[in-house]
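Quick one: structure for this chain?
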Amino acid sequence: MTHSMTSSALASGKVPWFSRTMKIRSLFATPFYEGSLADDSLLADLAHSCRSLARDDAAGRRWSRANHYPGYTSYASLDDLPSRDPAFADLVRHLLPHARAFAAAAHMDLAGRKPRLDSLWVNILKPGGGHSGHIHPASIISGTVYIDVPPGAGPLKLEDPRLAMMMAAPQRTPEAPEEARPFVYAAPAPGTIFLWESWLRHEVPPGAAKSDRISISFNYS
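Got it. Here's what it folds into:
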């Protein structure tokens, strides 16, 4: 994006008096994709499956307790959800077109290949629960589809990847556009699909919901 500084901007005193035209380009864009599952029946099936896993997956519950996860995740206990449950297999088929669209929009050169699903896991955050900042190494695209998002549930918080290198940079003004802020908060709804490049640091701040926040996260390689 290029912004031209015109005479009206000069008159306002917002740019140097000695420059009649200035151009500022926004470089190194960070793509972030939002889509929708748009299948209420599948969402209901997935909600049932996620809750069943939280009840039946003893290894996942133990890992969640041992690692202070505020709820349940299948991240470290189950790596075969699409073959275990038809609802997850249907989800995988729904997700691939979104991953391909994101890869194209991000200008990824995949040498004629398609993004390949590498992992998929369930997250159930209890009221007040969050997930600290992290990235997803060894993959190219990461994302989450949201199954149940009660009022007050924590959003997805995205961090400017340059933040650690900004040193003495001042704070941004309250009216700064989204692309100029150090953090962006993306609030999902049931069925929302978010995708981003896997190096992008993100987290889930603790929310004020009164019931569980249910989502399914995944990686593509």
